[in-house]
Amino acid sequence: MSIDDRASADRGGLQIIVVGGGIGGAAAAVSLRRAGHKVTVLEQASHLAPVGAGIQLAPNATRILAQFGVAEALAEHALVPQRHVRRHWRDGTVLGERSLGDAVAARYGAPFWHVHRADLHAVLMAAARSPAGPGCAAVFRFGAEVTGLHVSGSTVDVVTSRGGRYRGDLVVGADGVHSTLRGLLFGSGVGRGIPRGVAYRTLIPVHKIGPDEAARIQDILSPEPAITQWLSPGVHFIHYYVSRGRYLNAALLRYNASADPSVESWLLEADRSEYLALLDGWDPRLVALARLADSVFCTGLYEREPLADWVRGPVCLLGDACHPMMPTQAQGAAQAIEDAWFLGRVLRGADPGSLPGALAAYQQERLPRTAAVQRLSAIDQGKGLDERRGSAAEDRPGESGEAPTDFSPYEWLWPYGEDASHIA
Length: 424
Description:
424 residues; 8-stranded mixed β-sheet
C-alpha cells in the first residue's frame, strides 16, 4: 500500500508488497491474505489481459489450490487427462504410457488438471481480491513498474517509474523470469541464462477442425482427454485439450545448445513455415494436426543455475524470479504455487520481529526443492527422453533405454504439500 494509505490502515498483520501480478504473484496474494496479512500487488501491465495457453497442474499444485479455496471455481474450466502417452516421432509407436485420471486422484489425494493459463490466473485474482474471502482483500495497482527499492530498518520502500512509493514490512518479488527485484537485490548479472533452444506453442479451436482434418488426425487424438508427447532426438511435441475441450493446446520444444538465442517471451509470433519445417519426416498425422494452427508463438529456452539466495533483509523472491526452469517437467507454475503456499505457512502469525526467521525457513525449505526441479528439467534431462536411446530409437523405439516408460519423477514431485490440510 502507499505510504499515505498505510498510515491510516489498521496495523493488524504485516503490510506486504508483492511485485508482479502473474500466477505467482496472485497465488502469493491469496496465501498471504489467508495468513492474516494486508497485501498490495504492484503490476507493471496497465490492465489484465487473457494471455498464455495451456498449463498442466499436477497434484502438488491442485492440492494447494484446494487449500486456497479456488478448486471449485477452477474445476469449471479444468479438464482431467486420463493418460500420459509417449510416442515415437516417425510413426506414432507408443513408447510408454501412464494412467492418470482417477488413478492419480486415488494415489495422491488430488487431481491432475489441464487448464488454460488465463483461467487459472483469473481464478487466483478473484480469490485474492474478493471481499468475501478470509482476511483482507488484496489491492492490485496496475501500471506500477517498479524501479527502486530502499530498505530502512525493518521497513522497505518500493518506488515505481511514475513516482509512486509503497512501504511495507515485507516485499515479495514475483516479477517473473526478467525480475527487476532480483536485479535490485543481487545485481543485474545474476540469473542470466544459457540459450538452449526454442519453444513454439499454439491453441487450435476445436470447433474449427473440419471433418476432413478430424479424419486425418483422429487416430492420434484419444477419445478421452490425454497428454500425448512425441519424442525425437532434440525435438519434442506435446498436445492436450484445455478449457473443457474447447481448445487443443500444442507445443513444440526444440532442444539445441547451438540454437540462435531468441527473445525469452511468449509475445513473439513465429514464422509458421519455420515451425512446420521442424516436423519434416514426422508422422503425417501429427503434421496434419500441426498444420491446423493459424498462428504460432515462440520463445527462447534458457537454462539457469539455481540461485544461492532468495532473501535480503525484508525482501524475498518467489516463482520464476528465483527459479525459472526449462519446461520439460511442466512444473514452472506449480513451483510458484508451492512457494506461495509455504511462504503463507511460515508467515502465519508473523510480525516484524519474527520475519527474519520466517524468511530463513522459507528459503531453507523451498530453495533445495526448486533447485532439484530445475536440475530435473534441465536440457540433459529433457533430451534424455530420446537421446539416451541413441540411433536404436529409429528401429526399436523404446527398447534400448528406460526413459520412455520412466515416470518416476512424479513419485517425489507430486506428493508435496500433503500436509496442506493443516493450513486453514
